[in-house]
Design brief:
The structure is a single chain. The protein is an all-alpha fold. The protein folds into two domains: about 10-135, AGR_C_984p-like, CATH 1.10.3700.10; about 150-245. It is built from 14 helices and no strands. The chain has helices spanning about 10-30, 35-45, 50-55, 60-65, 80-85, 95-100, 105-110, 125-145, 150-165, 170-180, 180-190, 200-215, 230-250, 255-260. Helix 4 (about 60-65) crosses helix 8, helix 9 packs across helix 11 (about 180-190) and helix 10 packs across helix 12 (about 200-215). It is globular, with a radius of gyration of 20 Å.
Length: about 260
């Protein structure tokens, strides 16, 4: 039995309902036998996966590990994932460091296969560390199956404050956003930028994002989103803009013609 969250409404009203009921809905998901079995399996097996090869050759273990970082779509890309894990993150030229999507970097760093003689999988605290992320991401995935806007908003509420707190330059933070497809979509949508925005020069993209962010929120810095009120304003703006775009698409001449053909 797969978990289906209760999402009776869309738009900002539906988002408010999800936020109010999220804790209860997550508890329901975590109590399901399939979720309990996955967690028990991970706790039992992860300490024995002392090499990247052992991890990728256990598909169930790999699925849980990848899901914890939002990378479950790569569960069948064993060679690719093994190379990322074995390269680690301490070497500047490693694959995880080269990839634009920094979730791979987080994934490789968390497991430590390429960075330490003894991987982090042997730590007693490791199963809880990964399973906490697995629960959150599993719930987001279930929400996204019904409403991807809500999934993107949930991801942004977790990832943007973490990025805002990093001790890197503001430009580096913006480049991180541009390299992370879900965060990019949230920022572009919230700031009213078209899909074609991604085709312009990266430095120009950063300049436009800064300008639009300052106009909307009073500062061009991502650091401002450490403030819960600023973060709430961002997610609200994203959800409302997404709803407006959806309504515009539904009322377009092409959509109207399609509806007529279906009658």
């Amino acid at each position: 039995m797969s978990f289906q969250p209760v999402l009776p409404l869309s738009g900002f009203t539906g988002w408010g309902f999800l936020k109010r009921t999220m804790e209860r809905q997550q508890a329901v998901q975590q109590a399901l036998p399939v979720q309990q079995r996955d967690e028990a399996y991970f706790r039992d097996k992860i300490g024995k996966a002392d090499t990247a090869e052992k991890l990728v050759n256990d598909k169930r273990l790999l699925r849980i590990a990848l899901t914890a970082f939002g990378l479950e779509g790569d569960v069948n890309s064993k060679a690719f994932i093994q190379k990322i894990l074995e390269g680690g993150t301490l070497k500047e030229g490693s694959l995880a460091n080269k990839l634009a999507d920094k979730q791979y970097q987080k994934f490789a760093a968390a497991f430590g296969y390429g960075d330490f003689s003894v991987p982090r999988t042997r730590l007693s605290t490791f199963p809880d560390e990964i399973l906490t992320q697995f629960r959150a991401r599993s719930f987001e995935t279930a929400v996204g199956a019904q409403n991807n806007t809500f999934r993107l908003a949930m991801n942004a509420e977790r990832e943007i404050p973490a990025l805002a707190s990093r001790t890197i330059s503001e430009n580096a933070k913006w480049f991180t956003v541009l390299g992370n497809a879900p965060l990019r979509e949230v920022m572009q949508t919230a700031l009213g930028l078209p899909k074609s925005f991604s085709s312009i020069n990266l430095d120009q993209q950063v300049a436009v994002l800064k300008k639009r962010t300052e106009a909307a929120f009073g500062s061009s810095d991502i650091g401002q989103f450490r403030d819960p009120k600023k973060l709430e304003a961002l997610t609200r703006r994203f959800i409302l803009q997404s709803e407006m775009q959806g309504q515009a698409a539904a009322n377009s001449p092409a959509a109207t013609a399609l509806q007529l053909l279906r009658r």
